[in-house]
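Thread title: Can someone regenerate the structure for this chain?

I was given the following input by a collaborator and told the matching structure tokens would be attached. They weren't. Posting the sequence so someone can regenerate them.
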Amino acid sequence: MESIPHPIPRTVEEVFSDFKGRRAGLIKALTTDVEKFYQQCDPEKENLCLYGLPNETWEVNLPVEEVPPELPEPALGINFARDGMQEKDWLSLVAVHSDSWLLAVSFYFGARFGFGKNERKRLFQMINDLPTIFEVVTGSAKQSKDQSAAHNNGSKSKSSGKVAKGVKMSPPPKEEDESGEEEEDDDEQGATCGACGDNYGTDEFWICCDVCERWFHGKCVKITPAKAEHIKQYKCPSCSNKRARV
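Best answer:
Regenerated them for you:
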């Protein structure tokens, strides 16, 4: 339960400073202080929340009683899921909710003090330049940098996830030693989206399923170029559902 003894941020720079302080506290809870955090999230206790504070500390506490609260509240009841999941999965879940909460708090201040379009955009850009808590906790922040470097060097091979990283990526070329019938099948799969059936467009982002080897518009399977950077092996919705049923 946060009583806000800290100065209320009123400018973009002050809101960003508040964001960084809270973020640092939350990262401590989920990394260096993880054992202490784990112990405090007893499932036998009432609904608990993880709060990041502007002074780079954290606390696990009950939600505020006032309605509506003075600030947006973090995810409620994080302790109840602790023993029902693998620890790393539970920490990742808390990290995702913490990222959402940080954005909510920052843009609450922006709305409260009348940030205009340019101020909101600048605030988001400053926030977006930092890795998310989820990326830090799961280690994907470092992986993202490594993959981005590989991408910039032109690494677009089918073996590395068959992800068309970046727009204007052509479907996989037909191999010369294939029969005419197989060539036709591969061409049809590469040239049309496996979800919507539309033809390939050079100005669109595409991704290939490593299981069925069909190509999809990123927008049709809700995969962005940024998200694709973190995918080692992509399975389309159809193949994922088949595996789940097995």
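Confidence is low (pLDDT under 50) at residues 154-161, 163-170, 172-190.
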